[in-house]
Amino acid sequence: MGSIEGIMTGFQTAFSLEGIMFVMIGVLVGTFIGMLPGLGPISAIAVMIPITFGMDPSTGLIMMAGVYYGAVFGGSTSSILLNAPGISGTVATSFDGYPMAQQGKAGKALAIAAIASFTGGTVSVVLLMIMAPALASVAISFGPPAYFGLMLLGLTAIASLSEGSTTKALISAVVGFMAVTIGIDPQTGTQRFTFGNANLFEGIDFLVIALGLFAIAEVGKLIIARHDDSLSDKRNVGSLKITKEELKDMRGPMSRQSFVGFFLGVLPGAGATIASFIGYIMEKKIAKKPEEFGKGSVKGLTAPETANNAATSGAFVPLLSLGIPGSGTTAVLLGAFLVLGVQPGPLLMVERPEIFWGIIASMYLGNIVLLVLNLPLIPYISKILNIPRPLLIALVIMFSMIGVYAISFSTFDLYMLVLFGVLGFLMRLFAFPAPPFILAFILGGMLEQSFRQSLSISNGNFMIFLESPISLTLIILSVLSFIFPLLKLRKKKA
Amino acid sequence: MKKFLSLLLLAVVALFAVACSGEGGSEESAEGESADSGEGSGGEESAESWEPSEPIEIVAPAGAGGGYDTTARMAMQTFSEEGIIEEDMGVTNKVGGGGAVGWSYIADQAGSNHHLFVTSPPFLLVPLNGQSEYNYEDFTPIANMIADYPAFAVAEDAEWNDLNELFEDMKEDPASVTVVGTSSPGSMDHIAFAYVAKAAGVDITQIKYVSAQDGEGVTQILNGSADVFSTGIAETAEQARAGNMRVLGVTSEERLEGETLGQFPTVKEQGIDAELVNWRGFFGPPDMDQAAVDYYVEKFEELSNSEGFADVRAQFGWNEMYMAPEEYQEYLDAQNEEFQSILDELGLGQSE
User: Fold this and answer.
1) At B189, which CATH number?
2) Which residues, other chains included, contact A245 with Cβ-Cβ below 8 Å and sequence gap of 6+?
């Protein structure tokens, strides 16, 4: 009925001259800010909010949406080139993207990331358009026990995120769990490990840890290895061309992760970061040659890049159709809606179809613009690697500090960045893998909170985790995913 | 050369981004103190009138997009649109500790005349919980601006038709009902519900309260994980209008205005004698000069009476609630005592 009409109105809004112009401005600003290490969609949206004052709500929001997914699109650049994640959703991108760039294939890595982002973004917009109204019920289908199951499933991947010693991976994960408990516990209001320091009340920001463990630790390694000439001849950017085999490698992860990422994005609280990790792990588990992951695998780069962009579109489902902001970023975006006098919620689609469908329709255009914009820029952007190393190191440190400072404008976070940089460097020195730490840090908070929320609701009865079909399924999957590798190992030995 | 150019471009964009999002970062505060002391020693004339001499920083002690942040940004925008304050203003978000991080930042700006911050009931509750080393008595009251109200909502198909039915069930078995809110226990959403439940005769020490972030509260009500959503009116209005939720009670004295809001029954009309305002106003750092306080009081009064701000109130569903410093202070003293006794009863108070 009105749906088709609404979609038509949406396209009219998005493809008007103004609409096209502001989509382009939005994605341009978003992708540039996203490219900078540490600066992500939140900073990008915050910068743009004052610009929207007095604008027509539909064009203003089309632009803000563009800033958001543009920043996620651009976020992969610094992960790949500098091992300095621009946003939390691209931490997993650096696992294979950075090694690839180190092997002299930076251009190719950026091209793969751009194509994967484009595919993830576009497929998920189609899904969004077809299913947004129906998906509202999916978005609210997860209660606390189901979230607990999902986080548990994610955790079973810790072992697969490590090379070599599983014991060291587990130690790394446990430290990650410990780090995430710092701050005021939401369920009781009790301070945990804050030492009365107000700067620790909110806990440690994810980006501080990601930039510390990855970017700053890498800088440490580069400084130690400064006399190692073998690294310097690999500095060429390489060709952008993707071979047929590589394209074939990309196809599987792209088609699967577009869907997986989108559905994880639809769940409030899961979002792009968790989607990118789950996408990465899933592809590694089903890959024929999982040993290539972490060493510059095409699949390992494609999976998280597809998933995080797909999840970004997915996050618009709860925001537009229910008025639920599923993450810190969408909460800021919700603020931008309110400033323009638009209240996202169940009635938005009916009452303001030009906004609801206009935003969705504009995403088609936005993704094309992003691809067209990013591909030709790759040769120039990847020349960053040709910068003399001392200068490059200084720049990485500077940008990491800017990014961290922009989170809360607190100098305390800069000390934390250095602290985690040193920790990350020592972990490398003693071969403790950093990804399990990061994964535990991402999943740990929600794992604990949903576990305790569930038990509060059930008055302490553990059966609540087995009563809902979703959580039961997820818990069974977790158990299987834990036992399966053990069985495989046994067979091999026998 | 090209690479340097592109790098330079990146650097410029980055600096621009940071400068914009942090309008009025801390570097101003350092300059601020010297400028202030210069003016403070100016003698009689500065005691009579004071004008801002540099950008004013408004601190929202929470993240972008929340109630504190919206109030700060809309006040800032209207100040300049209506030409009430010509000087540049910027909003800084200091996230953490239910506000404690922001208050500790403001306490460090003691004596500055170019810092302001937004306040609301957690400004009393969080210190009473023992989560902040500073409380409202450490800062300089300027003006209260608006009133917002807590609301309690249930899913459309819930078994309770009004608050009395809910509280009857809770009197029998408090643990059978799960209350969800965004704040941590002992802060706004929890205390608002406890405050009303107490007036209805429920044993508030037995209330089962779950804290859920990132909009999860709405989710938990809609999928039936939790029963009662304790939140603000704005968070419930859209869901109520769409027929997903029913508002059992709001804590305003009289019914609110508006098509949707007017349908929400008040707690009072259901025979429960409880009223609670989610007031929002502005405070300054400790030891702000009296002349500066007078300047801001006058400006905020003008803002409150302006047409531009009336539109803002209508847009966000806020009520006018202007209070000058003395009245504001007395109001807070009274409310602080009330909160103290509730928190003590819940065993969350940190009475000295």
Assistant:
1) 3.40.190.10
2) none
A187 interfaces chain B, CB cutoff of 8 Å:
yes
Long-range contacts of A434-437 (CB under 8 A, 24+ apart): A434/A172, A434/A213, A434/A214, A434/A217, A435/A95, A435/A161, A435/A162, A436/A158, A436/A161, A436/A162, A436/A169, A436/A170, A436/A172, A436/A173, A436/A176, A437/A172, A437/A173, A437/A175, A437/A176, A437/A179, A437/A209, A437/A213
Q: What is the pLDDT of residues A347-390, one digit of tens each?
A: 888 888 889 999 999 999 999 999 998 899 888 888 888 888 88
What total number of domains does chain A contain? 1
Q: Give the mean pLDDT of B207-212.
A: 92
- B10 min Cα distance to partner chain A (Å): 8
Query: Which residues form the domain of B162?
Result: 150-270
Q: Are A324 and A139 in contact (CB under 8 A)?
A: yes
Query: pLDDT digits over A57-99, tens only?
Result: 999 999 999 999 999 998 899 899 989 887 888 899 999 999 9
Model ipTM? 0.82
| % of chain B surpassing 70 pLDDT | 85
Determine, yes or no, domain membership for B60: yes
Domain count, chain B: 2
Residue A9 structure tokens: 């109105």
Q: How confident is the model at residue B350 (pLDDT cuts 50, 70, 90)?
A: low
Disruptive mutation site among B9, B70, B213 for chain A (greatest number of A CBs within 10 Å):
B213
pLDDT at residue A223 greater than cutoff 80: yes
Per DSSP bridges, beta strands B115-119 and B208-211 are unpaired
d(CA A179, nearest CA chain B) in Å: 17
- Tell whether B210 lies on the interface with A, counting CB pairs under 8 A: yes
The answer to whether position B79 is within a domain reads: yes
Tell me which of B253, B270, B287 is where a domain ends.
Answer: B270
pLDDT number for residue B191: 94
Structural domain span for residue A76: 2-493
Nearest 10 degrees: CA dihedral of A158, A161, A167, A172?
-70
pLDDT tens-digit readout, A98-136: 999 988 889 999 999 999 999 999 999 999 998 887 888
B260 has pLDDT over 80: yes
Shared-domain flag, residues B341 and B200: no
CA A292 to chain centre: 22
Cα–Cα distance, A327 to B213 (Å, whole number): 9
Considering the domain architecture, whether residues B332 and B240 belong to the same structural domain is answered as no
Sign of CA dihedral A181, A183, A185, A190: positive
- The answer, yes or no, to whether residue A1 has pLDDT greater than 50, is no
Inform me whether the pLDDT recorded for B76 exceeds 70. yes
B264, B285: one domain:
no
CATH number at residue B84: 3.40.190.150
Given an 8 Å threshold on Cβ–Cβ distance, is B238 in contact with A46?
A: no
Does residue A487 surpass a pLDDT of 80?
no
- Closest residue by Cα to residue A368 from A82, A70, A151, A41: A70
Interface of B with A in 24-53 (CB under 8 A): 25-26
Query: How many CB atoms lie under 10 A from the CB of residue B223?
Result: 18
pLDDT band at A341 (very low <50, low <70, confident <90, very high): confident
At B39-54, the pLDDT tens digits run 444 444 445 689 999 9
What part of A 435-464 touches B (C-beta under 8 Å)? Answer: 449, 453, 456-457, 459
Domain final residue pick, B250, B270, B290: B270
Cα torsion angle, A345, A349, A355, A359, sign: positive
